[in-house]
Amino acid sequence: MTSAPRIRSDVDLATHTTLALPGKAARFASITRPDELEALARSAERRFVLGGGSNVVLTGDFPGLILHMAIRGRALASEDADAWYVRAGAGEPWHDFVQWTLAQGWPGLENLSLIPGTVGAAPVQNIGAYGLEVGERLHCVSAIDMRNGQVCRFDRDACRLGYRDSRFKQEGWHLDASMVITEVVFRLPKRWTALTRYADIGAELDARKVALPTPAEIADAVSAVRRRKLADPAVLANAGSFFQNPIVDAEQAGRLLATHLGMPHYPQGDGRCKLAAGWLIEQSGWKGRWLGSVGMYEKQALVLVNRGGARGEDVLTLMRAVQNDVRQCFGVALNPEPVFI
């Protein structure tokens, strides 16, 4: 038996998003159980799924229904000789979930510590940091098809994961809430290997005089590095890393490296090369630079911040200015990470 959630009207969304831009939802429902989604299925009303609000840019009022994901719960689903299979509700705060898995003695997600957002959003964006993408630990995803109310299950391959990409984005499901994730199961390998090859993490561990780090020590190092580089949304409104690291073909990478010595670059398995968007933005003169109430953070050029009073159009103006200057300087296109509604 399905149960409809309570729906509120004219809800302020600024307090539900970390960039704190003005905007109201015509209707707003906090979803605490999957059956509440089933009760709202088949409607032609425009919908959008909101988790922690850390990857959203409000461009004004939203005329439809916001589905605020609040499904909680976390548990060991099963285990075998090779891995623990850990289940979490889509509304679980991501960092809290990572910390909990480590406390249970199930490592594997420590490099993704302190990433904002919820568990349900993690596979949509295929979040990643410091040598790990969540897709490498994903086992399966459960979701409700809002077009017919059916429960669907996607294994890792069916999610079609890529760099900051997934089937949920490719099919546009994240934009119209036609498929809403309710639960995620992660596969955490029992043969754990420390991932410390990123210079920032290695340097942090060296400073702590940790030669053979435990998963918890890596999580602490990752969190320390992120706190130094990234603005706390509770202090300075922001949406985290605003642009994706661009991936270019080998020929373009070769030209850029020949003319820009010291450019950070990361060869990919398919022959292409990933570039550091933050470095490109800084070299283009945007680190710590403002346009009105919005700017690129002085400690990390990849982060767009709002010092108060900004609107969605201000963010769009700054985004386009940064994109234009990076294109002019390097011939590289930057794509934003957040969703615009």
TrEMBL record:
Species per Swiss-Prot/TrEMBL record: Propionivibrio dicarboxylicus
Key words, A-Z: Cell cycle, Cell division, Cell shape, Cell wall biogenesis/degradation, Cytoplasm, FAD, Flavoprotein, NADP, Oxidoreductase, Peptidoglycan synthesis
Gene Ontology BP terms: cell division; cell wall organization; peptidoglycan biosynthetic process; regulation of cell shape
Subcellular location, record wording: Cytoplasm
Cofactor(s) required, per the database record: FAD
Residue span(s) of domain FAD-binding PCMH-type: 21-191
Enzyme Commission identifier(s): 1.3.1.98
Transmembrane segments: none
Family per similarity comment: Belongs to the MurB family.
GO molecular function terms listed in the Swiss-Prot or TrEMBL record: FAD binding; UDP-N-acetylmuramate dehydrogenase activity
Record bears the keyword Ligase: no
Entry protein name: UDP-N-acetylenolpyruvoylglucosamine reductase
Catalytic activity: UDP-N-acetyl-alpha-D-muramate + NADP(+) = UDP-N-acetyl-3-O-(1-carboxyvinyl)-alpha-D-glucosamine + NADPH + H(+)
Active-site positions on this chain: 164, 241, 337
Domain of life: Bacteria
Pathway assignment: Cell wall biogenesis; peptidoglycan biosynthesis
InterPro entries: FAD-bd_PCMH (IPR016166), FAD-bd_PCMH-like_sf (IPR036318), FAD-bd_PCMH_sub1 (IPR016167), FAD-bd_PCMH_sub2 (IPR016169), MurB (IPR003170), MurB_C (IPR011601), MurB_C_sf (IPR036635), Oxid_FAD_bind_N (IPR006094)
GO CC aspect terms: cytosol
Enzyme class per UniProt: oxidoreductase
